[in-house]
Amino acid sequence: MLREIYSSLLITLRQLLVKFCVFLWKKPIIRKTFHRYVYEPKNAELKNIHLGKRAFVIGNGPSILKQDLTKLNGEVTFVLNSFFLHPQYHQINPVYLCSADPGITDVEYRKSWYKLHQKINTTKTTMLFNKTAEKIDHQYNLFKDHRLYYIRAASILLPPLSDLRFCPTDLTMPLAGHNLVFIDIALLAAYYMGIKEIYLLGFDGQPISSFKEYLNYNFYGKDQLYSIDRYKKDYHFHVMSRSYQKSREGLYEKSIACIKRTFARRNVRIYNDTYNQGTLTEIKHLDFEKIINKK
């Protein structure tokens, strides 16, 4: 009962914050202030770096184990969070790894996550991280051996994507988001880099009806850095909390619609190559094998 009340309170506060951000964003002086204090000049290096090319954004759903991702070696690829645990990581040779949340407020978790990167050796992959992780990374000298860009993803200074008709796409400035890394970083980065066709794989989105299914939501199963207690806490909040689920109803569809409207202005197309389609029913499904053989 107390957990439900606490969740409802957090949701109400978030909604009030969103309304306040929308109000502020309408003020020209606020937007000018953003540019002065939150500009990330290094990210301009990525502007149109893959102009006119295609890209593959790979989620961590179990279905990717049924697809031969080694065929993506040489393609522009964006992988997410702990994808480097894939047994064929070096054969796939991802170009970018996008991460919005692993350990951004948990120092010990992030340090352990970095040690896994060192063990597997991910230095050939360019990292696209949420700006919120920069302070910890600098303080503990994490990822100094990588090519690295920090992006102000899903900024609390902006309204969420679900409240916008068109979204900001300039990686040197704060970005609106949905709190899913493939939306908040990967898709917007691909657009900024000049990609014309984006293919999504591994976005199974399978429904979760038990704690066991929650533990095996990703292709690698339970995260070895997460305790069972932490999993249980997240499960009860994100899956079992009715108030949380109700607060998120319809937001995903609105966020995807915002992305598609924005991308359509430059004729950037998004396709779903997830094995057996997954739950991305609002995005046209294409067969992965046919696409990968089409240069």
Description:
The chain is an alpha/beta fold and 295 residues long. It has a single domain, classed as sialyltransferase cstii, chain A (Alpha-Beta Complex). It is built from eleven helices and seven strands. Strands 5-4-3-2-1-6-7 form a seven-stranded parallel beta sheet, with helices on one face. Helix 4 links the parallel strand 3 (96-99) and strand 4. Helix 6 packs parallel to helix 10. The longest helix is centred in the N-terminal third of the chain and has 24 residues, at 2-25. The model has no long low-confidence stretch (mean pLDDT 88).
Structure summary:
By secondary structure, the chain is an alpha/beta fold. It has one domain (2-292): sialyltransferase cstii, chain A, CATH 3.90.1480. The chain is 38% helix and 11% strand.
What's the number of extended β-strand segments? 7
Radius of gyration: 19 Å
CA-to-CA gap between the ends?
56 Å
CATH fold name = sialyltransferase cstii, chain A
Structural class: alpha/beta
Write the layout of secondary structure elements.
Blueprint: H1 2-25, H2 28-37, E1 54-58, E2 76-80, H3 89-92, E3 96-99, H4 107-120, E4 126-130, H5 134-139, E5 148-151, H6 181-192, E6 197-201, H7 211-215, H8 228-240, H9 242-247, H10 251-264, E7 269-272, H11 288-292
Parallel strand pairs: 1-2, 1-6, 2-3, 3-4, 4-5, 6-7
Helix pairs in contact: 6-10
